[in-house]
Amino acid sequence: MNSVQDPPSSSSSSPSSSSSIIIIIIIMLATLCVLVVVAAAATGVEVRETAGPQLWRVAASSHHRELRSLENEGHLDIWGGSGSHAQVMVEEEAMERVERALKEAGLEHNVEVEDVLGMVEEKTAHLRRKRSVSRQMDWTSYHDFNDIEAFIATLNQTSAGFLRQEIAAYTEEGRPVIAVRVTDPTATGNKKRIWIEGGIHAREWISPAVTTFIMYQLATNPNWQPLLKLTEWYLVPVANPDGYQFSFSGDTRSRLWRKNRRSNDGRCKGVDLNRNWDLKWGVGASGNPCSETYKGPSAFSERETLGLQSLMRQIGDIDLFITFHSFGQTVLYPWGWTVKPPANVRMLKRVAKKFGDTVKQMSKGETNYQIGGSGPLYGLASGATDDWAYGELAVPFSYTIELPDQGDHGFLLPESRISDTVREAAAGVYCMASYISNYGECAARRARNPDLGFQRQSPRFRDFRG
Q1: Helix (H) or strand (E) holding 358
Q2: Cis amide linkage into residue 388, ω under 30° from 0
Q3: pTM score, two decimals?
Q4: For residue 367, which of 329, 417, 411 has the smallest C-alpha distance?
Q5: Nearest to 432, CA basis, from 164, 274, 179, 233
Q6: Which percentage of the chain shows pLDDT scores above 90?
Q7: Active-site position among 114, 402, 415, 441
Q8: Residue 3: predicted pLDDT
Q9: Dihedral sign (CA 192, 224, 345, 66)
Q10: Is 326 helix (H, G, I), strand (E, B) or coil?
Q11: 402 is catalytic
């Protein structure tokens, strides 16, 4: 008998050597994962485990009944669209449900963006790297709420009495909802009051950029000073401070946050502040806290809207109201809750055209705005600020202006577009203000009072025509 064991053949291996190889492979894979995470952190790119939501193009208008129903249920988020199609973001877990509903409704769709969060990462990674410190205000980059608050404080100290800051409310997280009054304190007599609102939807970053730029022009630009003798401006750069600051938090998904940060019962946070105002509250809005258009538990349930409406009532008659949103390039007038036109629709169109024509001229025809009623163009929705201002306070000229673009970038408008957008919008607003004040090149020279055709009714305006 041979007492010496034959050596193993080259084609076989012992259990111990196989285990060693497996351990080495596991270590190598773990090391590779760590390196990927470190590299991603260094470049500001977020590592995600799932594909996440997609952006779909649906062959239906954005206010199609089926799309609105799915949005109200929290299954999708309508981004925008036209009369022939809609852009909707669909969460991964809701895709099967939404696809089935669209098929049953006979609506075709295709995927425009396979990985929405990946797209957001690609477009915003450099912004997160820039957010390491607070920065001085400019209009070539986006600024968070802290920057804007500091900018207002500085402007307040250097405005020679032209600017006054007021606090309309404090949010759930303790941030102030700031309203800034700008006028020439040396000029007496009746003045046209103008209210400008920005940032009520958190992800629409271009809105606070436009509002702060207008504020800066009012406080510093000599060409705007004569208008301040005839007008009194109230500007709310960020009507939703908590939501807006959250959208800068660095997480990719937070960049698309829309609502405030109210703590609702259950897993979903936030109320859509532009569905929370008390005029026809509930029409075209959702009662589901997980929906992007959640109207809240009651009208004016939110500190932001309750404080703002109180201040708007206190200042007296408002002559021009504008709330800036994005995106779409439209100038919208009431009503949102019905397709019936308002009583002074001809004058509303005329003043809106002043904005659109000015922007078109300044952009050399590259930026064009569509003008129309909110309801007919975007579908029925109530609880919006412009409807409330028009219907409750009898503001004769009340508008929602959807800023650029028309869907190529959507809510992620590049920083390279900020400068032109804010300058064009400011010029358009200047022309609107000049028209109602009967001053300058945009003046309504044929009428001493360009409010013609509109009679204020107090306390509640309820004149519906159609």
Answers
A1: helix 345-362
A2: no
A3: 0.83
A4: 329
A5: 233
A6: 65
A7: 402
A8: 37
A9: negative
A10: strand
A11: yes
